[in-house]
Design goal:
Strand order of the largest sheet: 3-4-2-1-5-6
CATH class of one domain: Alpha Beta
Number of strands: 6
Order of helices and strands: EEHEEHEEHH
CATH topology of one domain: Gyrase A, domain 2
Shape: globular
Largest sheet: 6 strands, mixed
Helix content: 25-40%
Radius of gyration: 19 Å
Number of helices: 4
Length: about 170
């Protein structure tokens, strides 16, 4: 069995390996209820660099509740790295600190990060105001924001059913 030599990550060690898109709250937390814990995830090529990044995050940030690598590939050779943090004020500054540090490892500039939250389809440029507007930083905001999604899903289902009916009547579907 090969041994992993952990000497710490150096500048640009993860260049071309980490994707520049972050998903917030797409996955449930292992450390607590979703309204209490933010789960951030992003893709990284290869398991070993992902494990190195997890170690870097867990050892470098006291606000990190947990970091982990997906058990299997999500895409060809790509894994997810999960970072869990308390859902509280200051989370935006913590995320900015992490991404600024990751710039040294990945060469991804802060302005080049994109994110999406929960079940949203569109990505947003990552800046403090967008994070504050889109990612809830308190349990109450989380409950308020997530309550909107069942209504949207219901409306999408009604529209989809109507579209299928139109297709059927026109002989398309």
């Amino acid at each position: 069995m090969p041994h992993q030599l952990n000497e710490g990550l150096r500048k640009k060690d993860l260049q071309y390996l980490v994707g520049n898109k972050i998903h917030f709250d797409e996955y449930d937390s292992k450390m607590g209820d979703p309204e209490d814990v933010i789960t951030a995830s992003f893709k990284i090529k290869q398991r070993m660099p992902a494990q190195d990044l997890v170690s870097f995050i867990e050892n470098g940030y006291d606000w990190c509740l947990d970091a982990d690598v997906s058990s299997g590939e999500v895409d060809d050779g790509e894994f997810l790295v999960f970072v869990e943090m308390p859902r509280q004020s200051g989370v935006f500054e913590q995320m900015a600190e992490l991404l600024e540090d990751l710039q040294h490892l990945t060469d991804i500039e802060f302005k080049d990060w994109k994110f999406r939250w929960y079940k949203q389809k569109d990505y947003h440029s990552l800046d403090e105001q967008s994070l504050r507007d889109i990612v809830p930083d308190s349990p109450n905001k989380y409950k308020e924001f997530t309550e909107q999604f069942p209504k949207v899903e219901e409306e999408q289902k009604v529209l989809s059913d109507e579209l299928n009916q139109i297709k059927k009547l026109s002989g398309i579907g």
